[in-house]
Amino acid sequence: MTKMGYQRFAWSVVFLLLISSILAGCGGKSPPESQKASSDAGSEEDQITGELNLFNWSEYMPDSVIKKFEKEYGVKVNYSVYSSNDEMLAKINAGASGYDIAVGTDYMVEVMRKENLLEPINLDNITNLNNIDDQFLDKSFDPGNEYSVPYMWGGAFIAYNKDTVDTEITSYKDLWKPEFKNSLVVLDDQRIMLGIANKMQGESMSSTDPKVIEKSKELLIDLLPNVKAFDSDTQKTMLLNGEAKAGVVWGAEAYLAYNENPAIETVLPEEGMYLGIDCFIIPKNAPNKRAAEAFIDFVLRPEVSAEITEDFPYSNPNKAAHELIGEEIMNHPAVNPPEEELEKGEFLKDLGETVLDYDRAWSEVKQ
Description:
Elements: H1 3-25, H2 33-45, E1 51-57, H3 63-73, E2 76-82, H4 85-93, E3 101-105, H5 106-114, E4 149-161, E5 184-186, H6 190-200, H7 210-223, E6 227-230, H8 235-241, E7 246-250, H9 251-260, E8 264-267, E9 274-281, H10 289-299, H11 302-311, H12 327-330, H13 339-344, E10 346-347, H14 355-366
Helix pairs in contact: 6-7, 7-14, 8-9
Keywords: Periplasm, Signal, Transport
InterPro entries: SBP (IPR006059), Sperm_putr-bd (IPR001188)
Organism: Siminovitchia terrae
């Protein structure tokens, strides 16, 4: 090789080494196998695949929303239902670990959090959380929303058919009148029904006083001749078909009944109504936690949240969705009660060991 040829060769080697160095600094160099494995693991953790097992009340999630999620994410959703918070807790507590996501009411979130039945939610994956009104976040039952994300909220109201009821209804105690013999539909929920009886005594819905609980049991036993059915799923059906003249019903059921028959009136009881925030939760050891978080974030989109309320008109904590919801829904007292009524309302609290007293009382009511 000539001297000139050798110099050209040397400069070529230097040039190639320089380019390699630059590419390595810019990330152009392939990572070592250990780094590559770590990178792959992170992407797999963030991958949304498989199936999602959703555990919820009936008539609380439109099929259209589920289908849209399935189409967008390629994840099949299996929808299972329950009739009360207690039923949901019992199934999860008994080891029903196949659920990826459930919906629990505020006080039940606290119970399950304390019993270590919930997975913490990665809020970095809930990008639409800022659509939720601040008043529904960082509540005492779950500080910082570590284990729950608000879904819907609302209350239990009195609804009655003005065409078939002669008496004016303003209070829970009106439901005990003989006029309603065998013609009431009431919620099949021990905390709410015993809580209502507590309120009639001027006590808290979450009273732990044994005397108050015993008196509430007696009041509900006295109500039994008027009760046609205990139903937490579709109270509107009995109001519309004439089987029930009145009842204690969910807000959405009161609105839907009114929407089909304007003679169905909603009453906000003078004692103060039950209020609750229903939240998404992820059970401990959920098989597909990442898909659960994706579903929560999907539902919090304003257009999706509004679609849910249009189908099942519960009160919606998603402030970004409000302008997309029809005015008739938003202005109905069963969906958005006046502020002064909310101030009289009451959220349930975790009872601790006293829940056993409520269990016993409820069993004696329904025996």
